[in-house]
Every structure is written in structure tokens, then in C-alpha cells.
Write a structure and sequence with these properties.
The complex is a heterodimer of chains A (about 450) and B (about 475).
Chain A: E1 25-27, E2 41-44, H1 48-61, E3 65-68, E4 85-88, E5 95-99, E6 104-108, H2 113-121, E7 125-126, H3 139-145, H4 152-155, H5 158-161, E8 162-169, E9 174-178, H6 190-194, E10 202-210, E11 212-213, E12 217-225, H7 228-239, E13 247-253, H8 255-260, E14 268-277, H9 279-293, E15 299-301, E16 317-321, H10 327-340, E17 352-357, E18 362-367, H11 377-387, E19 395-400, E20 412-413, H12 419-429
Chain B: H1 5-15, E1 20-21, H2 24-27, E2 44-46, H3 51-63, E3 68-71, E4 88-91, E5 98-102, E6 107-111, H4 116-123, E7 128-129, H5 142-148, H6 155-158, E8 165-171, E9 177-181, H7 191-195, E10 204-211, E11 213-214, E12 218-226, H8 229-241, E13 248-253, H9 254-264, E14 274-282, H10 287-300, E15 305-308, H11 312-323, H12 325-328, E16 335-338, E17 341-342, H13 348-362, E18 366-371, E19 376-383, H14 390-407, H15 426-429, H16 432-445, H17 460-464
Parallel strand pairs in B: 2-4, 3-4
Antiparallel strand pairs in B: 1-2, 5-6, 6-10, 7-11, 8-9, 8-10, 12-14, 12-15, 13-14, 13-18, 16-19, 17-19, 18-19
The chains are: A alpha+beta (about 450), B alpha+beta (about 475).
């Protein structure tokens, strides 16, 4: 994608932000840049009216606004066609209403996941979303990107857990979608339209989400396998069982490579299961898992952290989607390519982190940061090419290209069959293309 | 409406004579769905057998700007498939193929006309099932379930239709066939989520890839008997507050109990003011302890008796009594209207008080059936359409109850949809800007308004023309 904005921008009238207090408005800086574009201003909204004012100003001058929560996923997306206003939601930080009896919570978009979890824990509940970097990631950002961790296996994604939201769309309309009840089919589902729309249709300002009780007991069990087929066979047995697991994830440890020299040793494939419930249920599920995996766990801990994360190390990262049963074979193909195939830049050790969701056929592959051994641009290009081999990868998102690397690709692939409908929706909800212009799928 | 003979012969060439329904007597079947307060037969019904046929007939209609209304099995309860301004109906009842069962990936690809329960029947031998279980599951079809985003008793734990969909094959109002896909984090907007529950106004769904679930190791079903609805409502809150999420948590009041007892003879206590049906599932380990905790929570709120289904036969009879409660109501009344509102679960006692008051003020008996765990109420307003003015009072009483749901922070429909029934309440439920956005959403899929016009979102016209019932036999 082009590294420079293609739309010339008019200067912003900052007087429209008269209500902004100290520290809420500043000029854009180098650290705000996306694909080389530095915004004219950065607005940190404290009130919904300020979001509204920013969109109204952007519409009148055809400016580009990119919304930023905790900025954990801000780097993901095509280069913006124009980037004039960075609108931070981090100061929209009110937890509006906790309703433990209804198992719902309402909060503003800028509340971080960790803060909301701490608040819910006081009433014995939690949000069953384990998106990465929870101290930074905001609820608005999580819903806007449909971000998940391994708990999606047992509890669904934000698409399943978001009950209602308020958003300002590209027409500066205030949309109040869904509600505060767990079941609601009144009108079109604007909640699901906005969830996972990556800030391209509207800026979410407030959300209501379904909560769950904190489990009485829980355990994370890690089962190690020396080969991918062994792990895959166990995966098939576990996935085909009726165990009500909270998570069923995968991690591949390639560090054995570097210890033993180039390509001479095998990686360790780990099946990571999260079990939650009463003490009895946790124990019973643990026993069943051991039987299905044909071994004892290599590790068993109470804490949970999904191996499919995000990190800020700067290394190239790609997310892929396959049919669940295809995920492990697809990863075998990709790793063979990256570690020794024709596409690899060298045959040396590759510092690659691989995590996956075995129930939904999703994996994330990340190279170590540019400064690390095996990282850098050539590895990133090879990684991307590797995902194109074998035909099992149905979808892929280039989360981070790595420095100066594999630009020219659409970050989101493939272009959906229903793309013309998506373009129509974008045209009707953001007719002046002020929201994240060009960043989403197909340059929407 | 009369159709030119060229169009009719072109349509016949696509779907065959057996795929066309014409003539007043044959069309009468299609004059309403489960919402019987309004009736109007279409002038022509087309029943394609394949997606290609559906696409062809919709293209022929679109070329002449003839509006149409999609129809599944006609079990909807909000008048969503009433013809309205469309005189042609396109039904999916002949699209009955289960295209693929991919058990390794837990996916079934089925055509729109496949009956909900048939999906489970096709996979239960291997231990799988399709979770959404509307009460009409032995008749309603997957296409209709998608259109209405149908729920059912087990949505409390397992979610509604949209939570079980991976992809949809749809025919757009232009006749174009497109797959909407959310498998493996397919990039782009969640059009599966948007299309589901759109009540046939965005296009015709012709097939769906649905997620299959594995049957639980153990299940147990409790019947808790209460002196009245207020006590049972408080017990619902107590169970939720204890951090328990049952698979189902259903309530029936004395009127419903008397009807189902007469019909199915389960053995409900004759003096019960209300019962809760509470299903718990999961691992065998810990299930007894959980059932004990649920029982104690009910007793703490005044339950006089806790019964646990002794075996699968008793459990099946209990569920039959619940799911066929609608059918049993005929024993109490010549006619009834099912309402469908939602309140936050903790507000159930308040909405129950409203229903009681409305019932007394309008002089109408109201029976209460609820997906109580979801806060989803189904007041059944009993009436006799032969009594002048009674149907109008039913509509007014229903509107009052739904407005009270909104006042309590709830919704005017949890699973039945807006259809024509609740169009007049959309303005109370949503602001003008949100409604305008919904109209834009519809226009993105259905720019000419040819597919199921004047439903779901009030247009300028339908907004002022609130649908009112006509006496039965008038259409």
C-alpha cells in the first residue's frame, strides 16, 4: 500500500473543539504516524460530543479520522488514504453501570479490559474476552476489532458478547444499537455491523456486554507432542469430545531449533486446554483430557494466558484462518517453508512464535522483532509467501508487515465475495470516507 | 394483482408447475403465519427447488420491479411473511437438501427449507446436535430461523441462531447469489450477523453453514413449583445471582399449566401458581451438587416442591409440555395473541406486575410463558375474535406491555421479530438517527425495496399507518 496519503487535506478549524480541556488537543507527532502519515492533530475525547464534533469537522472538510483506543491493534490495516485527526478514546473511561444480577455491564469505549475485569471481579464476574495486552487494550477497541483470545472456544467472540453500543457514524449520526438485555431482535443488528468493522463505519463510544460468573475453579493444562500429527490426532479427539472446555489452543515452540542448530531438531507442539467450573468439573475434565491426549500434562497452572496474542516487539506478524481440521497441516506446510523451504532467505534458525485456536482454525505467526536474530524484513516476506502455499489457508491478515516489508499486499485477504455489499454499507454509513479511509478490507 | 402471461410462463419454465401456487383456494394456506391478527393471501407463490431457480425467479421479478416476500415454513409469529405490498411470495419449503455434513469441523451445510429438528436428526447418531431449539422446531425451517434469528428455551446458555452460523448463501433482491462468510475470521463486516434476524427484508436465504454441538455428557431437568409468578421470578434472579447459568430456565404460570396439564398430563400440581423448568447440563461430575444448589435457591424464594425428572421419558414429557404449550392454549380460548418482550432479568417481578395490571384493566386473561432466564416474556393474551372490539383491545394491551418493557430497559422483541406486528413501536424503541441508519442498511442490500417491503423499519408510509387487526375471515 502507498506509504503517503493520496488525499490533500484542508487545515482543521480547532475552534470547533472549544470544549476541549488542557491536554485534550495537540499537534500530531512522529509517534502518531501510520504508514508514514502524521495526523494534523490528536484529540483525546472526554465526552461523546467531542467525538461528534470531530466527525462533523472531518465531514465538512473531507478529512480522515482514525480512532485509537489502547493502540494495541492500531498498526493493523492498509495505509490510510488520508490521516488528519487521530481521535483517542482513552479518556472515555467511565464504567457506567454494572448489573451483576442481569449479568451485564455498560462502560465507555476507553475503559481498558484489565480495569473492567478488576471491577467485575469485585462482584464475582468477568468478561469472557481474553484479548492480548489487557492493560492497554480498550473495550471499544476490542469490540471494533472483534479481538479475542482462546476463551472464544467456550464463550464466543465479542460478536457474541456485545449486547448494545452507542456509536457516531460517518454521517455524524448517533446510533444506539441493541440494548442492555441478553436477547433482542428489534430492528437490524447494528451491533454486529459495527463489531469488527475496525473503525470504518462509526466510532464506538459506549458498550453493553454480557458478563459471566467467575468460575469457582480453573486450570490450564499443557500437553506437549513431539510431532504435529500426534498433536493433531489428539486435537481431533478433544475437539470431537463433549468436554465443555473454556479454551483449546495451540503453541509451537521452535526454540529447540536454535539450541540444536539449523533444522536438525523438531519443534514442540503443545495443546493448551483451559478448564473451568466447579472443583469437581475441573478435576474430571483434566482426567478426560489426559486420556484423550494419551499423556500427562507437561504443565498445569491456575493462570491463563492465550498463546495467540499481540505484542509490541515490532516483528512481522500474520494471522491465518483455516477450517479447524486444516490448521495443524497448514502450519506444518508454513513452518516447512519458513524454516527451510525455497522461500526462506537463509536456512538458519528462525525466531518465530506460533499460537493458534484449534477450535476455530485461527493461528498467529510472528517473527521476533527486527533487532532479533532471524527477524527482519526478508523473514517477513518469506512468512507471507509461506501462507500462500498448500491451499489450506482461507483467510489471512497481515498484522504487521515489518520494517519496509511486504507492502503492496492488501492487509486483508482474500477480498470477500460479498465485497460489493460492504462497499455499499461503507458508502451509506460514511459517505465522505472520513473514518479510517482506505484502511479496511479492499481499501474501504 | 394480475401478471402478464409471458412472465408466468417464464416463471413456470424455471420452477415447473409444481413450483407455482395459483388460485384463491390454494393460496389461502399462505394468507398468514402464526400471527393471525392480520391476514392477506398473496396472488402467486413460487417454490424454487434450488438456489439457481430462486435466483432466476427473483431476477425475473426484479426485471419487472415486482416486489416479493420470502417465506419459510410460515411458523413466524409477527407477520413477517405477510405479503403487504408484495403480491408474490417466494418460499423455500422445497429446498430440503442437507448438502454436507462435515463432522470433523462440526459444520453442517443445509438448505433453507430443511426443518430445524432434521439437522439434529441427521447428526445425533454421532453424538452431535444443532443447538437453537425454537418451540416450533419440528416444523420451522433453517431459512426462517436465520430470517428471524430464532431463539428457544436453551438460548440462555447456548445463544440464539446467529451464534451458531458460520456462513449464509443468499439471493439478493437483484437475483444475485452471494455467500456471506464469517469462517476463520473472514475479513470484512459481519454480514452473517447483519443478515440474520433481518426478517427477509435483505434477501432470500437459500442455505446456511451451521455449527454443530456435541451432546453433553449429562443433563438433568428440575421442576420447581411456586405459589405464584412473583416468587418464581425472584427465584430466577436468585439462581443467576448465585453464578449459575442453566441450559434452560423457563417459567409457566397457572393458566399455562392448566392448559398443558389438560393436554399432556405431565402431573403438574393443580394448585401451582407458577413453575420453573430448570435444565442443567455439562459433565456428570458436579451436576448433582449444582442441582442441589439450584433447588435450595428456589426453596429460598418460596418453592413448595422441587421435582427432578427421573428418566429421559419424564424429561421428554416435561419439555413436550413446555414446547407445545402454545398448541394447548386452544383448550382455554378461541384465540390468543403471543407477545414477545424482553426485560433485564432482575426486572421480571416488575413486568409481571405490569402484566397483571394490564390484564385486569383490559378485562383480558393473560397467560405467562417465559424464557425467564433471558428475561424474555411471552404473555399470551386470550381473546375471542367473534366478540366485537376484543381484538383491538388485545393489540392495545400488548402495546402497553411492550412499552413497559422499554421503560424497564428492555426490548420489544427477543426472538419473534418486528414483522408487521411491532412496526408501530419501532419509533419508541429507537431514535430517528438509528432508524435512518437501519433504513440505510436495508438500502445497501435492497436498494429498490423489492424484497419484503414495509417491514421491520418504518418507512414514511408505514410509520403513520400502524397495522391494526382485522376480524378473522376478513382476508
Amino acid at each position: 500500500m502507498a506509504a503517503t496519503p493520496t488525499r490533500a487535506s484542508a487545515p482543521i478549524d480547532t475552534t470547533v473543539f472549544a470544549s476541549l480541556g488542557p491536554g485534550q488537543l495537540r499537534p500530531g507527532r512522529e509517534l502518531d504516524a501510520l504508514a508514514g502519515a502524521i495526523p494534523q492533530i490528536v484529540v483525546t475525547a472526554r465526552e461523546v460530543e467531542q467525538v461528534h464534533a470531530a466527525i462533523t469537522e472531518a465531514r465538512s472538510k473531507k478529512l480522515g479520522i482514525i480512532v485509537s483506543g489502547g493502540a494495541t491493534m492500531l498498526h493493523v490495516g492498509n495505509a490510510p488514504r488520508t490521516f488528519d485527526i487521530k481521535l483517542a478514546t482513552t479518556a472515555l473511561g467511565r464504567i457506567v453501570e454494572q448489573n451483576p444480577q442481569d449479568m451485564t455491564v455498560t462502560c465507555e469505549a476507553g475503559v481498558t479490559l484489565a480495569r473492567l475485569q478488576r471491577s467485575l471481579a469485585k462482584v464475582g464476574q468477568r468478561l469472557c474476552i481474553d484479548a492480548a495486552l489487557e492493560e492497554k487494550a480498550t473495550i471499544g477497541g476490542i469490540v471494533a476489532t472483534n479481538a479475542t483470545g482462546g476463551l472464544r472456544y467456550g464463550y464466543g467472540t465479542p460478536r457474541d458478547l456485545a449486547l448494545g453500543l452507542t456509536a457516531i457514524d460517518g454521517c455524524a449520526r448517533t446510533l444506539k444499537a441493541g440494548g442492555r438485555v441478553v436477547k433482542n431482535v428489534a430492528g437490524y443488528d447494528l451491533v454486529r455491523l459495527l463489531t469488527g468493522s475496525w473503525g470504518s463505519l462509526g466510532i464506538i463510544t459506549e458498550l453493553t456486554l454480557r458478563t459471566h460468573p467467575l468460575p469457582a475453579a480453573a486450570a490450564t493444562l499443557v500437553f506437549d507432542f513431539a510431532s504435529a500429527p500426534d498433536l493433531d490426532a489428539a486435537r481431533g479427539r478433544v475437539f470431537g469430545s463433549n468436554l465443555p472446555l473454556a479454551a483449546l489452543d495451540l503453541a509451537v515452540d521452535l526454540s529447540a531449533d536454535s539450541d540444536a542448530g539449523a533444522g536438525s531438531s523438531v519443534p514442540i507442539w503443545s495443546l493448551i486446554a483451559r478448564v473451568e467450573g466447579s472443583e469437581e468439573e475441573v478435576a474430571a475434565q483434566g482426567d478426560r483430557l489426559c486420556a484423550l491426549c494419551g499423556r500427562d500434562p507437561a504443565d498445569a497452572v491456575e493462570a491463563w494466558a492465550s498463546p495467540v496474542g499481540a505484542d509490541d516487539s515490532g516483528g512481522a506478524a500474520v494471522r491465518i484462518g483455516t477450517e479447524p481440521a486444516d490448521l495443524v497441516p497448514a502450519l506444518v506446510d508454513i513452518l516447512a517453508q519458513v524454516r527451510g523451504g525455497a522461500g526462506a532467505s537463509d536456512k538458519g534458525p528462525v525466531a518465530l512464535f506460533v499460537g493458534g485456536h484449534l477450535g476455530s482454525g485461527i493461528a498467529r505467526l510472528q517473527l521476533a522483532g527486527a533487532g532479533s536474530a532471524g527477524g527482519g524484513s526478508a523473514g517477513g516476506a518469506a512468512l507471507l509467501r509461506a501462507t500462500e502455499v498448500g491451499g489450506r489457508v482461507r483467510t489471512r491478515v497481515v498484522e504487521r508487515a515489518g520494517p519496509g516489508d511486504f507492502t503492496g499486499h492488501d492487509v486483508w485477504a482474500p477480498l470477500p465475495a460479498s465485497f460489493s455489499l460492504m462497499r455499499e454499507l461503507k458508502r451509506r454509513f460514511d459517505p465522505d470516507a472520513v473514518l479510517a479511509p482506505g484502511r479496511f478490507v479492499g481499501g474501504l | 394483482m394480475t401478471f402478464d402471461s409471458k412472465l408466468l410462463s417464464e416463471l413456470r419454465a424455471v420452477v415447473g408447475a409444481e413450483g407455482m401456487v395459483e388460485g384463491r383456494a390454494s393460496l389461502k394456506v399462505y394468507e398468514c403465519d402464526g400471527y393471525t391478527l392480520a391476514k392477506a393471501a398473496p396472488d402467486l407463490v413460487l417454490l424454487p427447488q434450488t438456489t439457481a431457480q430462486a435466483s432466476e425467479v427473483i431476477k425475473l421479478l426484479a426485471a419487472r420491479r415486482i416486489p416479493f416476500v420470502p417465506r419459510g415454513a410460515g411458523t413466524g409469529v409477527s407477520g413477517g411473511c405477510l405479503p403487504g405490498d408484495a403480491h408474490v411470495m417466494v418460499g423455500t419449503s422445497r429446498m430440503r437438501a442437507i448438502r454436507n455434513l462435515d463432522l470433523a469441523n462440526r459444520i453442517a451445510e443445509v438448505e433453507a427449507g430443511v426443518v430445524n429438528l432434521e439437522v439434529t436428526r441427521a447428526v445425533e447418531g454421532r453424538g452431535f446436535y444443532y443447538a437453537p431449539d425454537p418451540s416450533s422446531q419440528s416444523a420451522c425451517t433453517i431459512g426462517g430461523n436465520v430470517a428471524e434469528n430464532s431463539g428457544g428455551p436453551h438460548t440462555l446458555k447456548y445463544g440464539v441462531t446467529v451464534n451458531h452460523l458460520l456462513a449464509l448463501e443468499v439471493v439478493l433482491p437483484s437475483g444475485e447469489v452471494v455467500w456471506l462468510d464469517r469462517c476463520g475470521e473472514a475479513p470484512g463486516f459481519d454480514l452473517v450477523g447483519v443478515f440474520t434476524g433481518s426478517e427477509g427484508t435483505l434477501g432470500l436465504v437459500t442455505a446456511a453453514k451451521v455449527r454443530l454441538m456435541k451432546k453433553c455428557e449429562a443433563v438433568t431437568t428440575l421442576l420447581a413449583v411456586f405459589p405464584g409468578v412473583p416468587e418464581a421470578s425472584r427465584a430466577v434472579s436468585a439462581i443467576i445471582a448465585a453464578g449459575i447459568v442453566p441450559a434452560a430456565l423457563e417459567m409457566m404460570d397457572a393458566l399455562v399449566i392448566s392448559a398443558v396439564e389438560a393436554a399432556y398430563r405431565f402431573g403438574f400440581p393443580s394448585d401451582a401458581g407458577a413453575v420453573l423448568i430448570i435444565e442443567l447440563d455439562g459433565l456428570a461430575a458436579g451436576l448433582d451438587a449444582l442441582a442441589e444448589r439450584v433447588g435450595q435457591a428456589c426453596i429460598g424464594e418460596g418453592a413448595s416442591e422441587i421435582r427432578r425428572a427421573a428418566d429421559e421419558a419424564e424429561r421428554a414429557l416435561l419439555w413436550k409440555s413446555r414446547k407445545r404449550a402454545f398448541g394447548a392454549m386452544g383448550r382455554l380460548t378461541p384465540n390468543y395473541c403471543t407477545q414477545d418482550g424482553v426485560v433485564p432479568r432482575s426486572r421480571l417481578p416488575e413486568i409481571v406486575a405490569v402484566i397483571t395490571e394490564v390484564s385486569a384493566r383490559y378485562g383480558l386473561r393473560i397467560a405467562n410463558l417465559m424464557h425467564a432466564g433471558d428475561g424474555n416474556i411471552h404473555p399470551l393474551i386470550l381473546y375471542d375474535e367473534s366478540k366485537p372490539g376484543e381484538a383491538e383491545r388485545v393489540v392495545a394491551a400488548g402495546d402497553e406491555i411492550l412499552r413497559a418493557c422499554l421503560d424497564l430497559g428492555g426490548s420489544i422483541t427477543g426472538e419473534h421479530g418486528i414483522g408487521v406486528e411491532k412496526l408501530g413501536l419501532m419509533g419508541a424503541a429507537f431514535g430517528t438517527e438509528t432508524l435512518a441508519a437501519m433504513a440505510d442498511l436495508r438500502a445497501a442490500f435492497n436498494p429498490l425495496g423489492l424484497c419484503n417491503p414495509n417491514k421491520v423499519v418504518p418507512t414514511d408510509r408505514s410509520c403513520v399507518e400502524v397495522v391494526r387487526p382485522r376480524p378473522r375471515g376478513g382476508g
